[in-house]
Specification:
The chain has helices at residues 3-27, 42-64, 76-95, 98-112, 117-138, and strands at residues 33-34, 37-38. It has 150 residues and is mainly alpha-helical.
Length: 150
């Protein structure tokens, strides 16, 4: 890895670690636990600790592999994932939850990951059905419906 790229990536991980430390410190000013349930400071504390720990871990991995020539993954794949997610979120408010979620997962499996079409369709349908089962049936949380009522 080039030295300038390594410095930039280390600076980026240090920035995230600093944000995680700040987040953790800020959450300690809030109540963490209230009676039998977590309070408003619990999740920021957990997320701050996780962000800090993951940033330190990635920084250590970067330092350990500084002598190796690391190949970078092309930028096209993360951009396709981001585009699929953005389309799913944008379409969700118009046509409900089920169709955009199924379409996004099918796109990710079939086009981005290049899995067989049948397997992509089955896994997408199964995951969508499992989410509907968990949220609609078990947790009694209504999901946005399609214009067709499902």
């Amino acid at each position: 890895m080039k030295l300038s790229a390594l410095k930039g990536e280390l600076a980026f991980t240090a920035l995230f670690a600093a944000v995680g430390i700040y987040w953790t410190g800020s959450s300690l000013k809030l109540p963490i636990w209230s009676g039998f349930a977590p309070d408003s400071g619990f999740l920021p504390l957990v997320y701050g600790i996780l962000l800090t720990a993951l940033s330190i871990g990635i920084g250590a991995m970067l330092l350990a592999s500084q002598g190796e020539a690391a190949e970078r993954e092309p930028l096209a794949k993360p951009l396709m994932i981001l585009a699929g997610l953005a389309a799913c979120v944008g379409a969700g408010s118009v046509i409900g939850f089920l169709v955009p979620l199924f379409a996004m997962m099918f796109f990710l499996y079939a086009y981005v990951e290049r899995l067989p079409m049948l397997r992509s369709a089955l896994v997408s349908a199964g995951t969508t059905a499992a989410l509907v089962l968990v949220f609609e049936q078990w947790l009694q949380i209504p999901l946005p419906l399609t214009p067709w009522g499902f």
